[in-house]
Amino acid sequence: MAAERVAMKRGRPLSPHLQIYRPSITMVMSIVHRLTGMALYLGTALLAWFLIAVGSGPQQYALVQAVMTSGPGRLVLIGYTWALLHHMLGGLRHFIWDTGRGFALPVVNRLSWLSIIGSLALTAAIWSYVLLHGRVVVGG
Question: Of 3, 12, 41, 65, which sits 20 to 30 A from 134 (CA to CA)?
């Protein structure tokens, strides 16, 4: 208790806070991984809406299609695609760590940057294809 009172008198925090730490790539990746996880919950609700609409008939499907092909709808879908890919690549980083590899700081930083660049590049590739071809082809 005495140490806490001394720290409070000097105006210093009792434990390190974000104001103390200089942001690092691993800190940013940790925060973004949590945010993309939350975004995936919302995106899954959109996916459920889409699936329910497909099963409910042409009118419901037309409504979902109109919303999702609008400008804001496409931005949401692009964001969902990025969140999914970023979260997946973050999971692969953790899988590498689960094997006992990749703990050296330069490797951790490299994997972090690869996750960011990879998720952006994959999102751009997927949506470039979708926007250029106007449709998604599944199967043959």
Answer: 41
